[in-house]
Amino acid sequence: MASAERRAHRDRRRAQHAGFTLIELMIAVVIVAVLMAISLPSYQESLRKGRRSDAKAGLADVANRQEGFMLDRSTYTTDMQELGYTSDPMVSEEGYYTIDAAACATGTIATCYVLTATPVAGGAQDDDTRCTVFTLNSSGAKAATGSGGSSCW
Which is it for strands 142-144 and 113-119: parallel, antiparallel or unpaired? Predict the structure, then answer.
């Protein structure tokens, strides 16, 4: 009988120590919240940086089409539809930027062009202040506005 009482006493002690207290759970929640607050801005910046490749790829594609257009017609164009896109300005493949062409400042569209990739208004890249607008011209010069400047390329 004594061993049965000891077993019952031991089972009651285990039951008292099972599970977590409210304080332990609250501490765990606070630790997770602090880790999220630290890592979330870095994660969002990584997403923005990845989306910038959409602008670069779109600009490269338009530049290639411009060069093909020049070979066929001895001039460049500002009309994206003449380059085979469905709209003017064209929307990049992933939809984060619109890309348009204009004549360069020192010449006419027949001799040079400037391509501009601008974030879609209200889109995921609209709040990117580091690399705002990307440009690429017919001589291959790349630039970007925003606090990152030329490091955006």
Answer: unpaired
The model's pTM: 0.73
Using CA of residue 67, residue 70, residue 76, residue 77, what is the dihedral sign?
Answer: negative
**All domains in the chain, ordered by first residue:** 2-152 (3.30.540)
Q: What is the pLDDT of residues 87-129, one digit of tens each?
A: 999 999 999 999 999 998 877 777 899 999 999 999 989 889 9
The pair of three-digit structure tokens given for residue 4, joined into one six-digit string: 């049965």
40: CB partners within 8 A, 6+ apart: none
* β partners of residue 143: 135
